[in-house]
Every structure is written in C-alpha cells, then in structure tokens.
Amino acid sequence: MKLYTKTGDKGKTALIGGRVEKDDLRVETYGTVDELNAFVGVAITELQEGCQDISKDLTIIQHELFDCGGDLANVMKERQYKLTEDSIAYLETRIDQLTAEAPPLQKFILPGGTKGAAALHVARTVTRRAERQMVTLVREVEDVPTLIQVYLNRLSDYFFAAARVINYRAHVSDVEYERGGQVFK
C-alpha cells in the first residue's frame, strides 16, 4: 500500500461519502481532533510509574478520538456513529474519582508540573479548541453528531483532573495563579 494517493494534490480531500476542500470546517474540526489524539499519545509517553490507570484511560480516549474523527468525516445519508453516551459516562465517573483523589482546589492553577501533567494541559487546550470548532460546525452544518461536542467538553475536564492527580502522585504541588482570588469552594 502506498501512503500517498495524489488525490488531494489540488486541495480537496475525501470524506466518508463525499469530497470537500481541505480547509472545510468539518475537515478542520476532525483535523484538530486528530492533533489532539497525537498530544494524548505524547502524554502517555510522559507518564511516570503509578499512573497505569490514567495510561489505560488515555488509550481508551485515543480510540474514542478516532471514533470522533470518523463520525465527523461521515457525510453519508444513512450512517451509524461510533461514539456513544457510554463514553461520556465513563469520563464523568473517572473525573469524579480523580477529583476526589487530588487535594481540594481553591484557585486557578498554572498548567505544568510533571511532564505528563504538562502534556495533558496541552491536550486540554487543544480539546477546548476542537470544542470551539465543533460549536461552529454544529451551528453552520446540519446533521453533525452533536454528541461529540458533549464528549469534548467532558474530555477537557478529564484532562484537567488527570493532570492534577499525576502531579499529586508525584508529590508536585499545583502552582496557584497568584493574582487570582478564591474561585472554587
């Protein structure tokens, strides 16, 4: 199999069921989801010992992000989406577990700490960009799987909670934003 097809040389790309310009909002959105998936892969490589549960979560998330990309690329009339409500429920459960493990949060914190936590903060911000693009896509395009928007919203929260736990397990304190007041009670 050749990796290059030359079919995109003139600025168009294939969707599942059609072709569009490479800068189409749908392509931009699933491209950002693909970028996010790559950052999750980086985060996995940066995890320290004692974070096997988070590594397992991240691998599951990578598969789900692939599902999101496929669902976004599918423009066929009759289609079934791969991402399900179960994925969101799993993230919510894990967010609650991770939040309970980390020390209580009172102020905004600066992204950073261990390499694994910092990588997840990058993934969190890319997730927020994908979510913003998804909002625009839902508003401008009919028949877009809106469940992805909800998933991305939960996913950024998961990355935040997981980053805090990674630092906590490594005995690295969060650095509070010093010019901010108490925002979490």
Automatic annotation (TrEMBL):
<feature type="domain" description="Cobalamin adenosyltransferase-like">
    <location>
        <begin position="3"/>
        <end position="165"/>
    </location>
</feature>
<comment type="subunit">
    <text>Homotrimer.</text>
</comment>
<dbReference type="GO" id="GO:0009236">
    <property type="term" value="P:cobalamin biosynthetic process"/>
</dbReference>
<keyword id="KW-0169">Cobalamin biosynthesis</keyword>
<keyword id="KW-0808">Transferase</keyword>
<dbReference type="GO" id="GO:0008817">
    <property type="term" value="F:corrinoid adenosyltransferase activity"/>
</dbReference>
<protein>
    <recommendedName>
        <fullName>Corrinoid adenosyltransferase</fullName>
        <ecNumber>2.5.1.17</ecNumber>
    </recommendedName>
</protein>
<dbReference type="InterPro" id="IPR036451">
    <property type="entry name" value="CblAdoTrfase-like_sf"/>
</dbReference>
<dbReference type="GO" id="GO:0005524">
    <property type="term" value="F:ATP binding"/>
</dbReference>
<comment type="similarity">
    <text>Belongs to the Cob(I)alamin adenosyltransferase family.</text>
</comment>
<dbReference type="Pfam" id="PF01923">
    <property type="entry name" value="Cob_adeno_trans"/>
</dbReference>
<keyword id="KW-0067">ATP-binding</keyword>
<dbReference type="InterPro" id="IPR016030">
    <property type="entry name" value="CblAdoTrfase-like"/>
</dbReference>
<keyword id="KW-0547">Nucleotide-binding</keyword>
<comment type="pathway">
    <text>Cofactor biosynthesis; adenosylcobalamin biosynthesis; adenosylcobalamin from cob(II)yrinate a,c-diamide: step 2/7.</text>
</comment>
<dbReference type="InterPro" id="IPR029499">
    <property type="entry name" value="PduO-typ"/>
</dbReference>
